[in-house]
Amino acid sequence: MTGVPLAEGVDPTLVSPGVGAFWAMLALAVVIILIARSFTVHMRRIQARAAEQAEGDRQAEETPGESKEPPDGAPSSPDEPPREGGTP
């Protein structure tokens, strides 16, 4: 294996990355743990909101007597102009 020549008198089996590399790896590990925790919190929020929305949709479908028709004079679609004088 050829590489960067070491200083004279240095044993290649005794050389280590050093304290700087230890701190760099420790910092990376802490950052990864914090990102993973943040990701978990956000995923739980998303799942809770989706469950609430699904529950609300289910309850809306089960509630009898509620009409999904727009109120008098309101357009039934975004492209339709408002009706004059209420329901035709």
Question: What this model shows, in words?
Answer:
The structure is a single chain. The chain is mainly alpha-helical. The chain has one helix and no strands. It has a domain at 18-58. 50% of the residues lie in helices and 0% in strands. The model has no long low-confidence stretch (mean pLDDT 80).
Outline the secondary-structure elements:
Layout: H1 19-62
Measured distance between first and last alpha carbons: 89 Å
Radius of gyration: 33 Å
Reported for the largest beta sheet, the result is:
none
The tally of helices reads 1
Quaternary structure classification: single chain
Question: pLDDT under 50 segments (min length 5)?
Answer: none
Summary tags:
88 residues; mainly alpha; rod-shaped; single chain
In short:
This protein has 88 residues and is mainly α. It is built from 1 helix and no strands.
